[in-house]
Write a structure and sequence with these properties.
This is Prevent-host-death protein. By secondary structure, this protein is mainly β. It has 4 helices and 34 strands.
């Protein structure tokens, strides 16, 4: 059982699960035991851990964002300017996001504007998020269409006994949440959270590079309605949505402006809603089903101005709309205390509308008009089915076997993916586990509709196969005490059928733009191997800490057959985080909390410039002969959270400061040409985001 914070204004509800023993016992004594590291999914024996909501509201650098929070887990690399999740050297776009059992679009605000797979913050608030599972490799058979990992998230149920409300105002915006029963004395409940955020206020306070994001406006809404019935099972209606707007304003006076004068705007929307149902068919069998619809839209436009800030030329206009209709259902059957099987199916109807236009060499174009390289409007179909059995031989050994199948109707491609794992409980405190899995993922739909000038209207990527990977994970867990846990997890991943540009070192593995303009073939490969360490003390006696370290190597082979470092081959990752809480006040009912996180990791790789060609053309030109040949410097980052909570009868007040990147660590992301100096510059951002807030719960 997990420890939970008890507040005067919010009722604490605990869900306690029990694991069935294969031995017959005369008497059972239930004692609470912290087991935060174990995933919620019983089919996961290695490569996974649970994300606690308590962490999302306590860890420094989390910003109540689960994507930023998992950056403190072993093997996971993140950036200050983005919440992208790069797992064990893989691209962030190889991760799959799931909510209530179905795959959803990237739930971040401003997704993929600064790079695929990331954004600023996710739309998930700690007010509505339930405990969730994070998989870093070799995941069970029920998960498909992912290469690096899966973030399997859930919304919690609202309180069905009393009404509770939370309001918060801060430099990043305002937020309001409410939950309670539909009718007193009945089990049905509601829960919702609305957030409107303006980065402009934070930009005014922080100044510096933070001013660059002051054109951001975003809002999100999430909800869940839980409807238990007497005989028809439990129904749930849930949803989450985002509305983002961004303008990259140019200064009024361009006479002192050093760079190419472009102004970009973006409108982005994401919405997901679903109807869930769970019913027990008998005491050993239940059926769980979900009907869902997802929608995402990204419309970005870029205008190029002259030196007098006049005569704008549209050099980029990209519109991407995707709607998915999803049915997911599985049957969970416990045949005996030893044997459990889970078998399911997912059917997804994919609707797409893409229209991508860009000028040659944008944004350093010379007046050439935009060219269309992807224009498609239609629908396709993705089907998957799986089965997985777990067999517990005795109290020490558990084994699992599974199979997942996928069919992509757009180009009639199939995959059959085997999964297997075994767990050995050596003693009550020592556990070994070994897991293997084959995994695959289709590409973004717009990649399949790329046309090039050389091929006319021919769809050069229509027949791309799934990219695939073999995962192997070995883990050793030592419960040093009921409150201290140590884990070692070596792993190996081999990727193949990876899309690459023929005869070039360009690979999807290193892709950062959200669009593709090149012809691709499935000739690429990759390999990632390393070892992760985690040493963690759970919250007790008012303090906690976690230390993680990862040493790894990540290589890829492009269309030219040469092995190179991947963009995400940072070599090492380390994290140290912790916090202390003091009980203050006359009756020791108030809480002062201080949390700190420090991170030291190697830099990403990048392709250096061909300086002669760049200076001659007055624009950055990459040297493809040295693809991924340089590495950014080692980065040290620190974050801090300070809060003071005042508990009163029926009400709680909280004042706090959450500061991201107090060290001013720099993220390097591309190159610029400085027209004033005539020099090439490695563009970087050192964004420190402050959130000074007040929260009241009543």
């Amino acid at each position: 059982m997990k420890k939970r914070m008890v507040s005067s204004a919010k009722e604490t509800i605990l869900e306690i699960t029990m694991k069935e023993s294969v031995q017959a016992l005369d008497e059972i004594v239930v004692r609470p035991k912290t087991n935060k590291d174990a995933p919620l999914n019983p089919m996961a024996l290695a490569g996974a851990r649970m994300l606690s909501v308590e962490e999302a509201s306590r860890y420094a650098g989390g910003f109540d964002d689960p994507a930023r929070l998992v950056g403190s887990f072993a093997g996971v690399a993140g950036d200050v300017t983005s919440n992208s999740i790069a797992i064990r050297g893989n691209s962030p776009q190889s991760l799959q996001w799931k909510l209530e059992g179905v795959e959803i679009p990237n739930p971040s605000h401003y997704p993929e504007i600064g790079g695929v797979g990331g954004g600023i913050l996710t739309a998930f608030s700690s007010q509505v998020l339930g405990n969730s599972d994070f998989f870093a490799g070799a995941f069970p058979a029920e998960y498909n269409n992912a290469l690096s990992g899966v973030f399997d998230m859930a919304l919690r149920n609202g309180n069905n006994r009393q009404y509770e409300h939370t309001a918060q105002v801060g430099t990043l915006g305002v937020e309001f949440a409410s939950e309670g029963p539909f009718k007193k004395g009945e089990r049905a409940s509601y829960l919702f959270n609305y957030r409107y955020s303006s980065m402009a206020l934070a930009g005014d306070i922080a100044g510096g590079d933070m001013k660059e994001v002051s054109g951001m406006r975003y809002q999100d809404l999430s909800f869940k309605i839980n409807l238990p019935t007497q005989k028809a099972g439990v129904f749930s209606l849930w949803g989450i949505g985002t509305n983002d707007g961004f303008v990259n304003y140019l200064p009024d006076d361009l006479s002192d402006f050093d760079y190419i004068p472009i102004e970009g705007t973006a409108r982005q929307y994401m919405g997901t809603a679903g109807l869930g149902h769970k019913i027990f068919l008998d005491e050993n069998t239940y059926l769980k089903s979900t009907y869902a619809v997802t929608y995402s839209q990204n419309h970005t436009m870029t205008d190029l101005y002259d030196a007098n800030r006049r005569n704008p030329q549209r050099i980029q206009d990209m519109l991407d709309k995707n709607t998915n209709l999803i049915f997911h259902s599985y049957l969970n059957r416990k045949f005996s205390a030893r044997h459990t099987n889970r078998t399911g199916v997912t059917l997804t109807n994919l609707f797409y509308d893409d229209n991508y236009n860009i000028a040659p060499n944008a944004p350093y174009t010379n007046g050439e008009p935009m060219e269309n390289f992807a224009d498609a409007d239609g629908n396709s179909f993705l089907a998957s089915a799986y089965t997985q059995s777990s067999y517990q031989f005795n109290e020490q050994f558990t084994a699992q076997l599974g199979l997942n199948m996928q069919y992509f109707a757009l180009n009639r491609r199939w995959t059959f993916e085997k999964r297997a794992s075994i767990r050995w409980q050596v003693s009550p405190r020592h556990v070994f586990a070994l897991a293997y899995g084959m995994h695959s993922r289709h590409e973004r739909l717009d990649y399949y509709f790329v046309t090039t000038l050389e091929t006319g209207n021919r769809l050069v990527n229509k027949n791309l196969d799934f990219a695939k990977a073999h995962h192997a994970v070995l883990s050793y867990d030592w419960n040093v005490s009921d409150n201290i846990h140590f884990r070692i997890e070596p792993y190996f991943q081999y990727l193949y059928d990876v899309p690459v540009v023929p005869g070039s070192g360009i690979s999807i593995i290193n892709q950062t733009d959200f669009y593709m303009t090149r012809q691709l073939v499935n000739d690429g490969k990759g390999r990632n191997f390393g070892i992760d360490f985690t040493f963690e003390r759970y919250l007790k006696d008012g303090y906690y800490y976690m230390l993680t370290a990862s040493v790894f190597d990540s290589k890829y082979r492009g269309g030219d057959g040469v092995w190179r470092n991947t963009r995400y081959n940072r070599r090492f990752l380390t994290n140290a985080l912790g916090g202390k809480e003091w009980m203050l006040g006359r009756n020791r009912q108030n809480v002062l909390g201080v949390n700190l996180r420090m991170n030291l990791m190697g830099g990403n790789y990048y392709t250096p410039l061909d300086e002669a060609a760049s200076l001659a053309g007055q624009r950055p030109v990459e040297d493809e002969n040295r693809m991924m040949g340089s590495q950014n410097p080692v980065a040290f980052t620190a974050h801090i959270t300070v809060s003071y909570k005042i508990n009163r009868q029926g009400t709680a007040h909280e004042f706090g400061l959450k500061m991201l990147n107090i060290t001013g660590s720099t993220d390097f992301y591309n190159f610029d040409y400085n027209y004033r100096t005539g020099q090439l510059e490695h563009a970087a951002a050192a964004v420190s985001i402050p959130n000074i807030y007040y929260k009241v719960t009543f």
